[in-house]
Amino acid sequence: MRELTYVARHTVRWREAPDPKLRSGQEAIVAPVAATSCDVDSAILAGHGFLDPPFALGHECVAEVVDIGDAVTSVTPGDLVVVPWSVNCGGCGHCRAGLTAHCTAVPHMAMYGAPIGGDWGGLFSDLVRVPWADAMLVPLPDGLDPVAMASASDNWSLSWRLVAPHLKARPGARVLVVARGSIGLYVCDIARALGAGEVLYVDPDPGHREIARGYGAATAETLEPVPHGFDLAVEATGRVDQLALALRSLAPEGVCESAGNHFRPGELPLLDMYLTGVTLRVARDNVRAHLPDALDLALTGTVAPERVVSHVLDWEQLPEALPEKHLKPVFVRDLAHRETVA
């Protein structure tokens, strides 16, 4: 089989690798059918990450189950499933507590798409081994489009977690979104659907702002801090100055969720945060725990994640197209190609 491999700045190539094999009765082999880039992949491809190439890329996809072990009961070959970005067993104390990104059965932060916690390959691969299929794989509900939901492995479900629990606790909350990619746009859509009183989206990209306005958000190219302006702020830029902007805009006891990958150091307004009494959460997401809830929201028809998909491209275009600057490209494989690979 082939796996798409990051080899140098702005450069990816197909690399031949052995076909994955089932190693236990709990495992499954899947073939991605609609895979997309996470917002952080753009930073990695631009050379801003902290991991040296080469390594297999990709950690967001809907896949078709190709083979399963004897002990797997939740999926069967031919099923379409969401493959969570992190590798987790489902049975350890952390997994049972919903901390699936911190599973103790594997090295810390074991994941697809980057050699953190071991080398598990990437989801831009013809075939992928899933070690705990019943714990990890989530069947894609009937009626949901694999292309629209290709990001459910990470960015879409993360966006649900960034706002849904807060809006449940604070109905009608005012929401500030400071972003540069798909996460911020998904947040706008979800926040509107869940009853946010106000959503302001800040992004220098006019195309992104247009999508946000389509979700009912007010938009701005840039913004000065708005003291006591928002109950919830979501930062998804990876820039500490923009995180500081979000923090300075919070109301007393407000909450800031940082979904940006901050590869560079910076300074936070700690005194302002202290005086306002804000809560800041910076975390990689335990997506498997709330993936079903995020998919349930998609099933209601009150959200439109497909509007964030910027391009639908053929699987074979991955080496040329992935390094290009696209908001949210989805790479698809048709049935004939999947049968050939499998």
From TrEMBL:
It comes from the Bacteria. Keywords: Metal-binding, Zinc. One of its GO terms (molecular function) is metal ion binding. Coiled coil: none annotated. Its cofactor is Zn(2+). It holds the Pfam family ADH_N. Residues 183-297 form the Alcohol dehydrogenase-like C-terminal domain. Residues 26-141 form the Alcohol dehydrogenase-like N-terminal domain. This is Alcohol dehydrogenase.
